[in-house]
Amino acid sequence: MLIDKSWYDELKLGQIQNVQAVSGGDINLAFKVVSDTGEYFLKVQPNNNEGFFDHEIESLNLINSVANAPKVIRSGTFQDNGYLVLDYIHFGTGSQYDLGRLVAKMHQRHSLRFGLGHDVLNAKNPKINTWRANWGDFYIQQRLNVLINEVQKKGLWNDDRDKLMRQFEEKLTDYYQVHPITPSLMHGDLWNGNVGFQQNHQPILFDPDVFFGDREMDIAMTLLFGGFNEEFYQGYQDLYPLDKDWQRRVPWYQTYYLLAHLNLFGETYGASFNNTLRQSVEN
């Protein structure tokens, strides 16, 4: 797909000088747009409309209310293509300590309940975000069970996994009935590919999938694939300390992310999911 001159008036970015295709993931087409007013990052969702980007816009705006993420310029629909324009980020280097503090600042934005008020169904891993007062109920019914249903459709579920999952969910129910959680603004996909640093060394968060949940879930994701060093966790703890036994619950949340990868990529992640689920039950 080409962004030709027919797009220029639609984008309203001034006198456009150059449009170059760039890497933008496996969901959207992506372009760097250079104009006399600045540089922009353009995402295009072919054969769709701007509503496709509603959740991403909400996510970025929520994070920018307390932390730092790409700024939303505008969105729209043009020639049966949904699009989203963000400011263009030039990358640099920075401090993992500062990155940890940035994530802690995000988590310090709270809500009275868990969820977001609307579902995200246009993703490969759907999210049900109906507001709930109890975190255990939310996590089990609106995260774990939703993905189990998707995995079952693909023939990737079995009796052993089901037995372990029911034991795990019973454990979660019992635990969170007596251990209340304060809902925090969550990134939702906090792996090392979704963080970075600007040229001024300021840390920045990308591609969020926000909702209000247990902040330990984001932290568990940072530990799943690596890329965050001890300075990151020190920066986080210095600003917003976690409960002293938070490490024990890391497998509880990595179970969800590995279930999501099982849904996306199949049995490649089956053994890792089984091991983490078993650890969650036994820990």
UniProtKB/TrEMBL annotation:
Transmembrane segments: none annotated. GO terms for molecular function: kinase activity. It comes from the Bacteria. The keyword Transferase applies. Keywords: Kinase, Transferase. Pfam families: Fructosamin_kin (PF03881). The keyword Isomerase does not apply. InterPro entries: Fructo-/Ketosamine-3-kinase, Kinase-like_dom_sf. Belongs to the fructosamine kinase family. This is Fructosamine kinase family protein. It comes from Candidatus Companilactobacillus pullicola.
